[in-house]
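Weekly modeling sync, notes
Attendees: S.R. (lead), two postdocs, one rotation student

Agenda item 3: backlog of single-chain predictions. S.R. asked that every request posted to the team notebook include the full sequence so nobody has to chase files. The rotation student volunteered to paste the first one in as an example of the format we agreed on. Action items at the bottom.

Example entry:
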Amino acid sequence: MQPRIWHQHYDPHVPFDIEVPEIPLHQFLVEGARQYPDLPCIRYNQLTFTYAQTDQLSDRIARNLIALGLCKGDCVGICMGNIPQFVVLYFAVLKAGGVVAAINPRFGSGEMHTLLADVRPFAMFASQEPAQLIEHLNGKQLYQHLIITNEDQAHEMLAAAQRASPLPAQPQDFLDFLRTEPEPTHQLPPVFSQDDCIYQYSGGTTGTPKAAAAMHRSLVANVLQFRSWLTTLEPQKETTLIAIPLYHVYGMVIGMCVTLSQGNTMLLHDERNGLAGMLALIHEQKPTLFPAVPFLLEVFLLQETVKQGKVDFSSLKIVISGASPLRVACLVEFSRLLTGGVLVEGYGLSEAPTATHCNPVQGEIRPGTIGLPLPGVDVRIIDVNDGRTEMPLGEQGEMLIRSPQLMRGYLNREEETNLVLNSGWLATGDIARMDADGYFAIVDRKKDLIKVSGYQVWPNEIETVLGLHPDIYEAGVVSVPENVLGEKVVAWLVMEKGKTITLADVQAWCNQRLAAYKQPLAIHFCEKLPRSALGKLLRRELREWSINSPSG
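Predicted structure, as returned to the notebook:
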């Protein structure tokens, strides 16, 4: 690509562009097993799986999936937390020529039914709790096979692979796929870089769940982009703490695939051990890379053990914050804990799985920004109203991205694909601006735009102002319909412990910092804001709360 202004701020040795090899994603595991078979690939509680073992287990499952009837291009759902089975299954499905649909195990029946009806998986691998729900939903034959596992089976995987039992016609136990010695006839098919790799669910620009279909080439490209960005990490010497969900594309690509591509070790957090267990892993196991989310970092800062300096963060070379905006105050405060590393904010989306921007790990970190576009990523900022005009430097507009990791489109949704993909450019649905050095800042989501008497109001701006009030812990802002104004701004506040505030106080605070049309006309209080598993603010729930509130 042509030189861009952000290239001058890249760390040394980071390329402006990347060359994407024509390989399937699982080739990183195959090569790892060949080059460093005895290095630890996965650590989980007291268990360790080497690269050779991880490769062999995934081979065995892949060939048994083929024996069961999986054809190239079939979808396989994986619905479980961060356990070794997820990693092994993920690469097994890809080796067998299948497409992975990673599904949140906390989904309710409506969400689960929508996803299964969309991808129609050949098989569903699920942990016990979601498996009960999935089994109940199969009245309409949404899938052919349901295979169940649990956290404790991780301890039995290697032993099971030493057995040679026949594969049941309707296997229901995950270990059946390891106990069975595959027939010589069930060989792995050729998988190409242009083949579909994952169906990753996203709300997109409309908020309606849909599967972003990404090719192997897309994920290989992003692995290489981000690997080149992490200039302070060394191959075969690092450990990544994976506490964010592997079923989310952020954990999947940056946590799992980038780590594996360098011959480094994945340290999986057992969620049963809670926050204290996560801090213990940092203190005792000394990870060096930690992909995180702002909500998790904020919670860390509230822990007494952290406040008292009883958790040693010095091993961490890089902490990445993604998935939602990072408060500048949190960036500053958490960075003080990292005596040996940096906290950098980045940005990504399921439609470009997964990262497109990040602050440099050796260069200037600009608080309040998502940093610079990664190698090979080109960006435009266009007018929100006409969707075409390129905005002047420093002006906000919708961010468009062109890069090698873009999805090929939304599964079964050609019309919606055409709305966001045009001539190789992806409309992200995010409103952003770029400064004179090529650092980008996200203003808000296009779909969250509030229009008050024709004026544009962005919730994030108001939330930032409210969050600066010393008595307000955090704020969520939405709109509700209003006859005269069209929409009115409503704020939901979580107060600091023991503090209170009135609408008049809020308006007085905002008067000095916001135009009158941006100020909340109603405030509500709650103990905590509704958030997703990755800590994203769920504005749709806040809107429902606001509409159903007696005071509006």
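Discussion: group reviewed the output briefly. Residues 48 and 149 are 19 Å apart (CA to CA).
Action items: rotation student to repeat for the remaining queue; S.R. to check formatting next week.
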